[in-house]
Structure formats: C-alpha cells, structure tokens
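Q: How would the structure tokens look for this protein?
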Amino acid sequence: MNFIKDTATPWLLSLGCLWSGAAFAQVMTTNAYRDTSIAYIEQDPSKYNFAYPICADILTTTTYSPSNDGLYFKASYGHRYLSSRSTKTDNHGGFDYWSTITCDSVNYNSANKIAILCMCDGYISEVLNGPDSVLEQTSKGRSVQVTCDSLPQALGGNIVINYRHLSSLGSLASLADTMPANTVLIHKGDTIGIMGESGYTANVHLHLSAKAIHPLYGNTYIHTARLFDPTLYPNVLAPLHEAKIELLQNWSDRALFRIIWPYNQTINRFEFSNAAFSAVFDKEAAYDKGASIRDEHDCIAGFKVFAYQFNGKQTALTRYNSEKVNMPAVYPASPQRDTNLSLYHYVHIPIVYDSVAFVYDFLVENLPTGYDKDSFVVRLSDVWGNTVEGRLVALTTATALSNSSKILLYPNPASERTNLEFKDTMTKSVRILNLCGKEIYGTTTNATYMFFDLIELPTGIYFVQVVSERKNELLKLIKR
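A: Here is the predicted structure in token form.
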C-alpha cells in the first residue's frame, strides 16, 4: 500500500509540538484481585439471592456463542455514547436488557415480547400507568416500582427496584394500580409485566434501575450491578477480571487514558494515582450530580470522561466506524478534532478494538507539577471489590522502540521506501507519527503487508504506531 501524502502534512510538521511534553506510553496490567477494603462495596454478593428479571437460556448454557444482539444486557450503568443527542453523552442510571432473548428454547423479540419477573419479595410501591398516548410523553413509560424486603449491605434504607418501559402490567401490578402504595405484596419470580417500548424510547427493552440510601450521596440510583451475584451467571455478568488500560498522551498537568473492558463485566470506580497524587472517578458519585450536571464530560472535578458505548449489536470498531463522522471533536477518538489542532491540541486516536466491549477515555486533569508519569497506577474496581490494577511503563529504546518479533519494518533507516509486515490478520490501526506525536498518515487494515513511499517525507526520526485489540506498539523509523 502506498504512503499517500496528506495535503495537510507540511502544515502539521510546521506546527511543532503543541502542548509540549506529549509522550507515548505502554500499559501493563499486572494483576487482578479482590479488594474488600474499598468503601461501600457489596462484601457478600450472594446475600440478596435475587432472581434475574428475565429468563434466558444463556444464563446457564455451557456453550455460549450468541449473536451480538443476544448478549442479554443492552446498556450498563454510567456514562455512555448516545447517538440521538447532539452532544452524544448521556449518564445512564440502570441496566437495559435486549428484547432478543431465548428462554426454554422459545425465541422472544420485539414482536413476541418476554415477561419481566420480580427480583425480590416486597411490596409494590408505585405504578405508572395510563393511555399509551400519555405515557409516550414520559421518560419512564409504563413502570412498576417494588420496595424489597431486603436491606442493602453497605447502604441504607430498603432496596427499591424499578422496571421501566413495559407494554402491559401483570395482574399484581394492575391490582396495585388501584390500591394505595405498599399494600400489594409481590414475591420473587412473580410477573411484573411484559417488556415494551412505552415512554421516551424507540426500542423494545427493559430498563432496570435500583435506589437506596448511599452514605455519601443520599437517596440515589445506585449501580444496578449491586443487585446481582457475579458468580452465578458469568456469561452475562462476571466479576471484573480483565481490562486493557492505555496511557494515550500526557502533558505537564494532565494525562489521557483509554480503558477497555468486556461487555459482561462492570466497573464502578476508576482510580488514577502515582507517588504525587490520587484521584477517583466513581460512577455513583457522577450520577448523583443531578440531571443538569451528570451527563457532562466534566461532571466530576478533575476529570473529563468520554464514553463510547459499544456493548450491543456492534463491536467497538464497527460502532466507531459508523459514528465517527458525527462524533463531536471533543472526543479523543473523533476525526473532527484534526481540523482544528490549535484548539484541540492533538490528532484523534481511533478506536481499533474489534470486539463487543466498553471503551472509556479519561482526561485526568490538575496533575501536580513534576509528577512522574512513569509511576502511574490505575485501579479499576466493580461494586463487589473485584479489581484490575494496571501499571503504566514508559516506552524505552529497549522495549517498544524496537522491531517486534511479529512486526517487521524494513529497510530501516530508509530513504525512498519502507515495508511493513505483520504475522497476523487482525484488524489494526497503522499510523506514522512525527516526534511531537502528530499523525502524518493513518489507516486501518487487516493486511499482512503494506509499504510506505517516503520520498516526500522530510529527513528525520518518525514512529510507526500499530494498534490492535491485543497490542499497542511503536517502531522507530529513520528517514534519511
């Protein structure tokens, strides 16, 4: 493949290093463990013994290979990318469930809707019902709220569970709609209603949310994962045990991280630290900021969070490719930022992970003067204390600035042409960068061979960056 000269290349080269100090780094995830010292976690995941709200064969199957729209959960708790909004950012207060579910070998979908089951023993404390024309003007739609007999472990009050967007009510909920609140008893496994799309939504799904009294945030929508035991059905909801963490860029007072984790795992707490500072982004704290603030990228002081919600129907790469044209320039992965580097400071960093996964970018701000970027530690924890700890190690000549055993760059040094060979066919992003980290050329490919025409490239040192789902490597390229 030829190196195609970008007409903006001379301008990019002449800009010099905006926000000097930018550097590439390599992430090493050292270990996964459970940290029971984290405040307000669920110490005993099996305590509640709640039922799952939707029957599904994938909960117990040992041969698990559903289509991407059969993954049970459609959306998780916390920030997500919402294409219907102009800003694309939304803070989601619960779990969403797909309508495409198989239960007892019966296929359910938006036409053949599945029943929603009560998760706990308790009393029906609220029913929202009425004509569809009226419910369509509400965010919740037809809904049932159950106040469980169960008390939370680390929080206060009773656990309150909401079931939203129903198409119809079950018999107990219909009775409760005519009775005073908290007078109709309901049991675990009873039918709440039928999945639907009432209210502000265009898709048939269940929105499940939970409230309790948090010692720090008061009566609030807590992380919905607190209701579940992750050891029961790890096919759909497992303890956090794997994640990919990257330091994308760093400057004198801030650093940009990318975090990727599988669709069937959750994260509630993101901790960034080194010897000089420690900062925590907590999803429950972010949601508690209220409707006017919680959706913003900077809802927690010291952070900007950019979520790319890729846990349904499409892989991270496929969804990114379908959305990037309309992605606002503030997103680190948005190609729109490249048109105004004087404002946005660095070129976009594409999403390349061709799997169904969550992707978050965090800009960690207000770092102390002289902080040591090489000693970064990132700790990711779910609501049960399961933690993935990553240590970020700066690239050195001996590590990443050399040819990988699976990537060949030759000849190097080169004056007219250099070749790039890969020993796999994984989808990968390939970029040529100058010493300031500015992109001179970029493409996405699954080829095993490509070449670059270097004739018009000025003499100097460059880097060839190859990013795939499994690795992020830099190769030093010398242009004679």
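Confidence is low (pLDDT under 50) at residues 1-25, 394-405.

Residues 85 and 162 are 24 Å apart (CA to CA).

Upvote if useful.
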